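Handout, page 2. Input:
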Amino acid sequence: MGKGISIDRRKRLREEPHTGHNRWHPDIAPLIEVEPGEDVTLETRDAMDLQIGPRTTVEDLPKMERTAAHPLTGPVYVKGATPGDLLEIEYLEIVPERYGWTRFSPGFGFLPDLFDHYFVVHWDITPEYATSPQLPGVRNPTARSWAPRAWRRAVSN
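Output:
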């Protein structure tokens, strides 16, 4: 296996700043360099950086730190790539965590004007499906069950 960036899933990005960032900016130095076509393993954090967990309720959502959202792993520098190059990525495997969540917050996130109340869904994720007690009868296929067929790209510059 090639290079990679590992994280401690019990820590937030601010506790491990050497693993990533939360914004795109040209002054953020790459954490690793890879050759075109080289395999890379990246562990990622959830979109709210551990602020939502299995015991989170709708009452907790308004208290979340909104500026700590969207932690990103990396950056990764592809040798030979220059600004403006288009890079193609082949996802060889996506391994979801066992727990996941979905939340709606008024005025925040996707479709903020369509949801006027807080709502949180806690997902039990298996390699094939995600289910939730908040949405009985709903069973979503997981990324692992469909991604290898859907994405066929190679790292290149």
